[in-house]
Amino acid sequence: MKSTLKDPEPLLETQWPADPVKPRKAGWGGLKRRLAPYGFVSPTVILMFVLMLVPIVMVIGYSFMNNVIMTKHPKFVGLDNYVTILTDSVFHTALANTLAFTFASVAAHIVLGLLFAMLLNSPLLGTRFKALFRAVYVLPWLFTVAIIAVLWRLLLDPNGVINFLLMNAGIIDSKIEWLSSPGTALFAVTFINIWAGYPFYMVSILAGLQGIPKDLYEAATVDGANNFQRFLHVTLPQLKPIIISMAMLDLIWTSQQFALIWMTTGGGPINVTEMLSTYTYKLAFSQYQFSLASAAAVVILLLSMILAFFYIRHQKARD
Where are the domains of the chain? Predict the structure, then answer.
């Protein structure tokens, strides 16, 4: 007979809990990983500190002293330099000229940039004509400020091409000194700045136009909208963020324009084209009033910071 007894089961080994893994203490390797991002940005931070923060602090300090650099032991004079600047009639003229020059340039840049961008985006033009017009319209953007200043000084010379064409067309009877006459100098430099700056708007708005979905135009057409209504209710709302951003940047750039003014009129004649930038430059390097120039520079910095604040605020709202 077979035995009914089962073989005894093998004894299982006792399973003791494994020792818990102890976390390694963050050593030099962990510290390097944490400091690596700061190491990458440190060269930029150092450059900004040396080239921006230190000069700004020095200029602010100079603005509270009597004539620094020219005086061996300058003394603290408080807000006297600011009072002198803010009560100077030439400063008032420079501020008014800067405002007129800036707002006229920005407004014209927006209008011309939008018109030329829509022209280049129009299906009525062939590919070859679009390429030709793009090359012609973007040409002012390729020139440096020095080339632009020399070019327009030659064109606007009393014996230049502009007077020649206008006299032959019967528009004027005598030669006009566009950059030397108090009645036309500010208009002339504003026109030059408009001509030099509109391609930036044109290229940016053209990119925005090409990014607008065609479905929006098709839906507006189905709803019975004409060309003007499509432009008003589809194109402009889609381009609004781009236009506002560019306008704020242009306000900052144009209000600080120096090279074009200096190389065309030098702020003259009779302070007609004097800007805040040329006014500050003349205080420092023509009159050697470095403390007054520092005070004027601080005022310009505050005005620029106000514009920069609204620009950053708009960008955050847009994001």
Answer: 45-87, 93-292+307-318
- Tens of pLDDT, residues 113-135: 999 999 888 877 777 887 888 88
Distance from C-alpha of 81 to C-alpha of 123, rounded to nearest angstrom: 59
- pTM for the structure as a whole: 0.83
What is the CATH code for 93-292+307-318?
Answer: 1.10.3720.10
